[in-house]
Amino acid sequence: MIHIEKLTKKYGDFTAVDSLDLDIKEGEIFGLLGLNGAGKSTLLNMLITLVEPTSGTATINGYDIRTQKQKVRENIGFMFQQSANYFSLNAHDNLMLKAVMYGVPRTEREKRVKELLTFVGLDKRADELTVNYSGGMLRQLQLIRNLVYAPRVLFLDEPSNGIDIVAREKIWELVKSTAKEKKTTVFLTTHSMEEADFLCDRVGIIDHGKIITVGTPAELKKEIRGDVVIIQKKDFDASCVKELRFIKDIKTTDGETTLTVENARANLTKLIAAIGEVDSIQVKEASLREVFLKHTGREYIEG
């Protein structure tokens, strides 16, 4: 459904997206993780035809983003971080306007609008001007505005950014059900490891304009080959644990040391004996955060 081939964007001497190749299939939820400036937004803006590539291209449902822009736009929905609702209209009319603009048959419009408003819990406030809505309500409305006409591909830029847990979970549930039931392909950027892990069929990590690894969340976490032990200790010298055979990897960033440990529960006593007194120690299963650190050498800061 999305085919990206050697896609590149340069701004003078700076390469924002560097000869990127990627394929995403119909009905797949694909998440892109990366630090600010890694190339996420530039890639997204090229795919939705707002930014012209320097070289290479991509197709959306078979339509080329460079030569068939209008056809691409007819096949996609997109949700930016900033609200794009019509504040002079109520929620019901926001959705109806979108349905009319994208050619939803007259006989289906009202049914679709009511179903979506009910799903996210906005049905009881459907006649209220959206200028009075909370941030979470606006994000939910923005999402369902892009689902009322059932696009083939839905692009989401930080879909749960700045909203509460209840609204976030409703958005996640709706995205998952849409991909499964409507076969809508979802391409999202996110700063949330939890969101990527829960929501995405596959995840890619982008750094300096290149996608450096792609896989299911489970596949990526298997790369870590053990449990994660996070140690905070002033002037910690990692040499004291390097000879322990159950230590698989050591990374230190900003005064915090992350160890990959084989069977941490069984070996924790030996590890503490080797390290001595610490300020704090935390043991957890491997997550996408450790995968990101492994591939980029940098801690992933969510926000």
What is the helix fraction of residues, given as a range? 25-40%
* Text of the CATH class of the largest domain: Alpha Beta
Mean pLDDT metric = 89
- Main sheet specs: 6 strands, mixed
Shape: globular
CATH topology of the largest domain: Rossmann fold
Summing up helix and strand content along with how strands pair, one would put the structural category as: alpha/beta
Structural Rg:
22 Å
SSE sequence, one letter per element: EEEHEEHEHHHEHEHEEHEEEHEH
User: CATH superfamily assignment of the largest domain?
Assistant: P-loop containing nucleotide triphosphate hydrolases
Structural domain count? 2
CATH architecture of the largest domain: 3-Layer(aba) Sandwich
Question: In order across it, which strands form the biggest sheet?
Answer: 6-7-8-3-9-10
Count of discrete alpha- or pi-helical segments spanning 4 or more residues: 10
The number of strands is 14
Into which percentage range does the β-strand content fall?
Answer: 25-35%
Descriptive labels:
10 helices; alpha/beta; 2 domains; 4-stranded antiparallel sheet; Alpha-Beta Plaits; 303 residues; Rossmann fold; 34% helix
